[in-house]
Amino acid sequence: MKLQSLVITFIQVAVVESITDVFGYHGGNVTLPSGASSSWNLTKIEWSIYRNNTWIATYQRKKINVDRLHSYKGRLHLDTSSGDLTIRNLKVTDATEYSVDLIDDKGRDSSNKIRLNLRKKLQKPTIQIVNSNSENGECWVKLNCSSADEGVNLTWTWHSEIFNRTSSIPGSDGSFMLRFTSTSTRQKQVTFTCSSTKDNDSASADYTLTCEDPSPPKPTPAWLVLFIGVFLGVLITLVVIYRDKIKTGCIQAKETVLKGSVI
């Protein structure tokens, strides 16, 4: 009797789940996508963290529970249509890996993993005026923009409808020189904006400059000129009228002084 041996080799294939990276900012809000198909009618949603699948938000039997974990209490919103989870007022400890398990009304299921990465929001750049000058309706200004953040890109824009730009020189160090001419007799102001950008984040600062020629000396008020004229006129008239008495008084005063000297 001949025996045949059948050797069956089982090959185990490890399925590597892809992880979706999501970025948020400390203190801001972020929405974690569940990855559910828009055609699904979800009946069960389970969001969890850690390797032991600690639930933080669930939807079962048409009931939502987003207060399962104290550290997330009051900060979660679960969209039962899409399965997406929104986290408000992000904290440093929120930067971790999240898992979501979904089931729809036809028994189809899906699982996805999302990794939340937190970034620090860019700080507002600082604008300093290096020098400026204005003459005959034409202005020169040199501004410097700097940021406390590293690796940012600094750009300049300006906002005004009453100035024509004649030349501009952007500097690689964040400085910016602009020459512009007034085209209006109204208040001559132009606002410069320095924007700091990095990845998908941005911050900006504004500086408003008034371009006016140095004010000429103010003319003497007419009422003051009239008052001085009248005063001088009255004084001259009195001198003319009483000149004899004034002359006599001066002679008498001189004689008195001479007599006092002799004594």
Describe this structure in words.
- The chain has 263 residues and is of the alpha+beta class.
- The chain has two domains: 19-119, Sandwich (Immunoglobulin-like); 126-210, Immunoglobulin-like, CATH 2.60.40.
- The protein is 15% helix and 44% strand.
- The protein contains two helices and 16 strands.
- The protein has helices at residues 222-241, 243-262, and strands at residues 19-25, 30-32, 42-49, 54-60, 63-65, 76-78, 85-87, 97-104, 109-119, 126-135, 138-146, 153-159, 163-170, 175-182, 189-198, 201-210.
- A six-stranded mixed beta sheet has the order 1-9-8-3-4-5, with no helix packed on it. Strands 10-11-14-13 form a four-stranded antiparallel beta sheet, with no helix packed on it. Strands 2-7-6 form a three-stranded antiparallel beta sheet, with no helix packed on it.
- β3 (42-49) and β4 form a beta hairpin.
- It is rod-shaped, with a radius of gyration of 42 Å.
Task: Give the class-level CATH name of the largest domain.
Answer: Mainly Beta
N-end to C-end Cα span: 176 Å
Percentage beta strand: 35-45%
Largest sheet: 6 strands, mixed
Give the CATH superfamily of the largest domain: Immunoglobulins
Provide the CATH topology of the largest domain. Answer: Immunoglobulin-like
| Secondary structure tally, helices | 2
CA radius of gyration: 42 Å
